[in-house]
Amino acid sequence: MAVQRSKARATVCVALGFASLLGGCNSEILLGARPAGNDASTSGDGEAKLDAPSGILWFADHETGDLSQWHAGGDAMGGEYQAGGTIEISSEQAHGGSYSVKMTIDTSDAADHTARVYRRAATAPAYYSAWFYFSEAHTPDVWWSIFLIRSQDPNNLGTYRNLWDVNLERPGDAAMIISFYDHIADKDTLGAFPKPVPVGQWIHFEAFFSYAPPNGTRLTFWQDGDPVLDLMGLGDAPSPDLYWAIGNGANNLTPPISTLYIDDAVIATTRVGP
Question: Shortest CA distance to 43 belongs to which of 18, 63, 23?
């Protein structure tokens, strides 16, 4: 569950030093719309087969009509979790094919609510991406996180701690923008050139994540192919047992009921791109 944090938080802007990272990512994986059901290059549970496009470690296109791709390999590899939220497969919106994951939370009581899916993070540096569709704009009173890295407590299996969150903010009730929250350092970061996050259309979010303690951990984030955040020197996780989670999580939104859709999620060794 996300950790509630004070509204009195330090916010810093970072320069976007992406040249060295992008220079090593010339080979991109392009995923288009897929027909219903997984294609011949992938297994039914989303695990990549030998003839899958180069670089894809796992994907979920939801054309199975359920969440089985997220659960492939058992709870230690992936699944879903919610606290006061709902998660369901929906045909109301779809990026490619017929289905997506619909996640709804109601924050009317100002308590923490979450509805997320997750996968175990790759042991080597990798790219984590998905398409998001926001039904409407919301203004968070404190936090609204949609994309995060978390760690399992080594002393209490089944208990997790959020480490690094990609959030949505809406300064002055203008357009929503991406921000970053570091739970370890208790610090917010805004990109130097924030890009508006639109509603009513599909948006591609992608992160490069490399866990290299004590000083080399890095998270770089793209929105529709444009660099938004580049964070280096992130702190140590309490455990190297890391997970990637995406979905809906907040504690006091205006309007209070939020619905978002997620589709075509991928973990890969090279950039996917929009």
Answer: 63
In whole angstroms, what separates CA 1 from the centre of its chain? 15
pLDDT digits (tens, 9 = 90+) for 145-192: 999 999 887 666 667 889 999 999 998 778 999 999 999 888 889 877
Structure tokens at 269: 């060794």
In whole angstroms, what is the distance from residue 182 CA to residue 165 CA?
7
Query: Residue 102 in contact with residue 261, Cβ under 8 Å?
Result: yes
User: Cα–Cα distances in Å, from 176 out to 24, 140, 192, 194, 263?
Assistant: 30, 10, 15, 9, 20
The domain ranges of the chain are 61-268
**61-268 — its CATH code?**
2.60.120.200
The tens digit of pLDDT for each residue in 168-177 reads 999 877 899 9
Give the β-pairing of 242-250 and 113-120.
antiparallel
Q: State whether residue 187 is helix, strand or coil.
A: strand
- Please say whether the beta carbons of 55 and 41 come within 8 A: no
The answer to whether 176 and 197 are in contact (CB under 8 A) is yes
Count of alpha carbons within 13 angstroms of residue 182, beta-carbon side: 22
CA 169 to chain CA mean position, Å: 15
